[in-house]
Amino acid sequence: MDLLKKQSHLRKNLLTGEYVLVSPHRMNRPWQGQEETIHNIKRPEYDNNCYLCPGNTRANGEKNPKYKSAFSFKNDYAALQQNTQEFKLDDGLFQAYSEQGICKVICFSPDHSKSLADMSIDDIDTVIQLWKEEFLLLGTNEFINYVQIFENKGTVMGCSNPHPHGQIWSQSSIPDEVLKKDKEQSKYYKINKKTLLEEYVTQELIKKERVIFENESFVVVTPFWAVWPFEVMIVPKKPSRDISDLTTKSSRLFAESISVLTKAYDKLFNCSFPYSSGIHQAPTNGKKNTYWHWHMSFYPPLLRSATVKKFMVGYELFATPQRDITAEHAAKLLRELI
User: Which of 29, 74, 279, 296 has the fewest CB atoms inside 10 Å of its own CB, making it the most exposed?
Assistant: First the structure.
């Protein structure tokens, strides 16, 4: 519909039930706001001062092994604690309760200079295998009901160490964003007997407007409801609750999808493209969760160039998310770089 390209409108996020305001006409407005500093300095393969490099001593005094591929360890400064004392506060309008969890750090590569975009598909696949291993290991704990795999890339995303790494936080409760997606997917499945994302992917592959890349097992797409300017989602074509379903073949195809996307990101503004990425999958709460269809989302903050960042402020903090560039145009720009 042409009006989607010209005038303001609301788009519904089918996974959360929330809306985003799209204002395509605002792409022509002049920019006199903050511009970020680009850090395209080539990092060394090994940094003696890096807490995550092989053989180095971490901040807590423990020494990393001289690892040769992906490596994981318990977070030295974890946001969630495993041995917490159980409590519940129910004092009028003051409500709180204890939370228990385990946090891990995943080093993607021993090479300090690389990001996922620089790594081979084989090496990314090794990371995926470690994600899968940790997901299964953490999820078997009786007190763990959800496992969140994520990466913050770049200083603009608050990343405190440039070494290629991500994190896994697992916890007793199910986080709010996951609860929203749990509710909407369950509701859709009960009515249609198919997963919401299976149907969504089918429609996206017919239209092709927002599809950036596809292989035998995965679709890389800018969601119709994307909030961030160059937001992207990697979705399995066939319904799958979590990454434990990945076979040797589909794991490699997932690695290919990540590789293609991150390389396109780096080409877009000719910089090491910052983002937060995360995998949303079924809770590990012992239920069947047959309505779940796992997916990986990338939320990059860059808007018009390597120096212009999208800020979530004002209306977006107090009302609803808003974007200028349409999902279709963003997908086209990324697709043309592959």
Answer: 29
Residue with the two structure tokens 């799209």: 22
13-335 sits in which CATH class? alpha beta
Contact assessment for residue 127 and residue 120, using Cβ atoms and an 8 Å cutoff: no
Question: DSSP states of 202-213 as a string?
Answer: HHHHHH-SSEEE
Calculate the CA dihedral of residues 271, 337, 335, 130 and round it to 10 degrees. Answer: -60
* pLDDT tens sequence across 51-75: 999 999 998 999 999 999 999 999 9
* SS3 of residue 272 by DSSP: coil
**Exposure letters 296-324 (e unless 16+ CB within 10 A, then b):** bbbbbbbbeebebbbeeeeebeeeebbbb
Q: List residues with catalytic annotation.
A: 165
Cα separation, 221 vs 232, whole angstroms: 6
With tokens 């078997």, the residue in question is: 140
Q: Which residues pair with 220 in a beta bridge?
A: 213, 234
Q: Which two tokens stand for residue 262?
A: 């991150």
Distance CA(304)–CA(122), nearest Å, equals 32
In the block, tokens 């977006």 appear at 316
The predicted model gives 252-273 an average pLDDT of: 96
Structure tokens at 192: 């249609």
User: Is the separation of the CB atoms in 39 and 80 below 8 Å?
Assistant: no
Q: CA of 72: how far to CAs of 45, 104, 265, in Å?
A: 19, 7, 26
* Model confidence pTM above 0.70: yes
Domain ranges for the chain: 13-335
What pLDDT shows up at residue 37?
53
Contact indicator for 98, 81 with CB cutoff of 8 Å: no
